[in-house]
Amino acid sequence: MQKGVYRARKKDGTEYFRASFTYRGKHISLGSFSDEDSAHQAYVEAGRITRDDAIGVEDYREERPLSFSKWVVLINFRDNGMYVKTPIYLKEKFFYYYFAPEDYLVFDSDDLFYYSTHSIMRREGHLFVADFGMQVNIRSRYGIKNFAVEGRDYLFLNGNSSDYRSSNLRIINRYHGVQKKETGTRVFFETKIHINGDVLVGRYRTEPEAAVAYNKAVKLLAEKGWKKNYPVNYVEEMDEESYRKCLETVTISETVTGWKGE
């Protein structure tokens, strides 16, 4: 066997080859290959990358024997002295999570542990990680709900929708059915629910109260036989007793309370 290459077999008996590389005392798997020579070329390239600090992430090409993810891992380890198994490149107070040389997300250093142990998947513009057997939209980590619309419910302040640093994210509307409104110097929160079109539930002084009003409307419509499966707001600012009292006292529009069904 050529250096850095190991023969292996799948459960069905098919032969394949694995490549691995040791750098700074760390044994790093470089992946699986269909033939010995490809595996060895990956080993040779890993050595070249770690010896030549002029090679950067942007130098990757699809014909390289290494996967792009391994390319980033090795360059980050070389430059920053920290091994991370996902395609992350560390900077002083933030890091890049790469999909391709010119395609990456930006996160605060506080997120490093999470994304070093969770690989990001992308499908039709949505970003997910596998967490406890479920696919979780990463935007939920930053208070962006699934229903949220950029520009209405949240903003990327520098205009870069790939930059998830806390200094770049502004959450405007956190709850289902609730929108912040401003009229002159007056700020209020407007709650609507979709029945046969959007129906006004009410206008409220605080965002949590508006969120509870939405939940109350959902509960009332269910009691009246409306079959739509509405999401329900979890109002984190309220304990159980405060939530119960607010649910009892918050007022909702007669359009909702008087709804009699189709």
Please explain how this structure is put together.
- With 262 residues, the chain is of the alpha+beta class.
- The protein contains six helices and 14 strands.
- It has helices at 36-51, 68-80, 112-117, 207-223, 240-249, 254-257, and strands at residues 5-9, 15-23, 26-33, 88-90, 94-100, 103-108, 120-123, 126-131, 134-137, 154-156, 169-171, 178-183, 186-194, 198-204.
- The chain has a three-stranded antiparallel β-sheet with strand order 1-2-3, with helices on one face. A three-stranded antiparallel β-sheet has the order 4-5-6.
- A hairpin with a 5-residue loop joins strand 1 and strand 2.
- Helix 1 runs parallel beside helix 2 (68-80).
- The radius of gyration is 26 Å and the shape is elongated.
- It starts with a strand and ends in a 5-residue tail after the last helix.
- The model has no long low-confidence stretch (mean pLDDT 93).
